[in-house]
Design goal:
Layout lengths: L9 H5 L4 E5 L7 E7 L2 E8 L2 E6 L13 E3 L2 E3 L6 E3 L14 E7 L2 E5 L9 H4 L9
Antiparallel strand pairs: 1-9, 2-3, 3-4, 4-8, 5-6, 6-7, 8-9
Bound molecules: FE2/S2 (inorganic) cluster (FES).
The site of FE2/S2 (inorganic) cluster has 9 residues, from loops.
Length: 135
C-alpha cells in the first residue's frame, strides 16, 4: 500500500524497495514513459490527479503500453487498442491483466516499488512462440 505521505528522506525510500525513476516534470500529463527496474519493464504514467505504474508489456502481443493513449484512468495499447485499467491492471473486456506497481511522488521525484506479482506472459509467450522475458 502506498503511504499517504512519506516523511522519510529519499535515501530511506531506497532501502525499502523504492527506486527513483525520474522527475515528475519529465512526465507530461496523460503520457507514459518506460523505465526498467531489476530487469522488469515498467510504464509510469502521469495522470490528472497522480501517478500510475504498471508492467510496460501488453499481455496480448507485447505492445508498448507506455506509448498508449491515457484517458479515464486507462491506457489504450497502441497496437490493437485494448484498454487497461491503470488502477487494477485489468484489460477491459478480457481476462488478461498486468501487474500494478506502487508509485509515489516525493518532492519532484517519482519513486516506484515493484509489486511481487510475476510479470504476465504475453499471448505469444503463452502460445509458446517465444521464450518469456527474463524478470
Ligand atoms: S498488443 Fe496490446 S492490444 Fe494487442
Amino acid at each position: 500500500m502506498i503511504p499517504a505521505e512519506i516523511s522519510a528522506a529519499a535515501t530511506d525510500l531506497a532501502s525499502d524497495g523504492w527506486v527513483k525513476v525520474g522527475r515528475v516534470q519529465d512526465l507530461p500529463v496523460l503520457e507514459g514513459r518506460r523505465t526498467t527496474i531489476e530487469g522488469r519493464r515498467v510504464a509510469v504514467f502521469r495522470l490528472l490527479d497522480g501517478l500510475a505504474a504498471i508492467d510496460a508489456t501488453c499481455p496480448h502481443k507485447a505492445g508498448p503500453l507506455q506509448d498508449g493513449l491515457v484517458a479515464d484512468n486507462c491506457v489504450t495499447c497502441p497496437l490493437h487498442d485494448r484498454r487497461i485499467d491503470l488502477s487494477t491492471g485489468q484489460m477491459i473486456g478480457y481476462d488478461d491483466a498486468v501487474a500494478v506497481h506502487e508509485v509515489h511522488q516525493h518532492g519532484d521525484e517519482v519513486w516506484v516499488r515493484l509489486s511481487q506479482v510475476p510479470q504476465t506472459p504475453t499471448e505469444a509467450e503463452r502460445a509458446g512462440l517465444q521464450a518469456p522475458a527474463a524478470v
